[in-house]
Amino acid sequence: FRKATNGPPFLLDLKTRTGIGLKIVSQEQEAALGFVTATSLCQHLAMHEIVAWDSGGGSFQISADWDGEIKSWLRPVGSGVATGELVTKVMGKDFSECPSPNPVSLEHAQALAARLRKTIGPPPQWLVTKLAISHVSLVGIGGDMSIFRLASELCGKTTFTASDVLESIENMCTKTDSDFRKLEGVPAANKMPHNVIPKLVLLYVVLDVTGASGVSFQESNGNLPGVLIAQDLWHEE
To answer: What angle, 0 to 180 degrees and rounded to 10, lies between the N-to-C axes of helices 147-155 and 162-172?
Structure first.
């Protein structure tokens, strides 16, 4: 919605039709909502022990409490962006004619990783320092189609490392859309086969550049818990 040229008028039309006040939040607000969501889902952890990672189609946000202030690392790269990058830049195809990159070779996956690494850039020092603390947990929030759900299903565990994700990439390369739809126990791949590799590569690159020891998946319908808690979003304008 933030990038779509018809986003604001579309929401205005919905508001007119339904009477419900809708708004587009900034990426900064989305990051804050992600942090609130993660803390509400991980009540066994103190707020300062959580680093929240929210990754969608167009961007990702990683947020944490740093000396009493919520700091965020915001990057305009999500699974949709990564898929487009793989199809158009790495494979040299027209996305409108080739919406799925499958089958993806390991060489193409490695080339995508290099491009994403350059686009994402180095993480801020506060994040690297925070993730180096032994009792701090990196928490990935998302629904049934999120990159974290996909990796969890493929790795067979809810907490996984960069090495786990890399192994999944190597195992999933060369598979076709049909192969992904037939994978047992991996609904995230069955339903959206076209971006399995881009999701995994993006996940791997972020884990690698941040030096995170791993990420724990916490299921959530987007940032809904954070939205429900954030009172300022419910004020009438």
So the answer is: 80
- pLDDT confidence of 31, banded at 50, 70, 90? confident
User: Does the pTM exceed 0.70?
Assistant: yes
Cis before 103? omega within 30: yes
Cα 235 to its chain centre, rounded Å, is 28
Q: In whole angstroms, what is the distance from residue 110 CA to residue 129 CA?
A: 27
Contact call for residues 189 and 196 (beta carbons, < 8 A): yes
Q: Which helix (H) or strand (E) holds 102?
A: none
Distance CA 95, CA 88 (A): 6
Q: Is the pLDDT of residue 236 over 70?
A: no
Cβ proximity of 195 and 161 under 8 Å: no
Q: What is the Cβ-side half-sphere exposure of residue 40, based on CA atoms within 13 angstroms?
A: 19
14-18, 28-32, 98-102, 168-172: lowest mean pLDDT where? 28-32
50 DSSP β-pair partners:
137
Helix (H) or strand (E) run with residue 190 in it: helix 187-191
Neighbours of 215 (CB within 10 A): 28
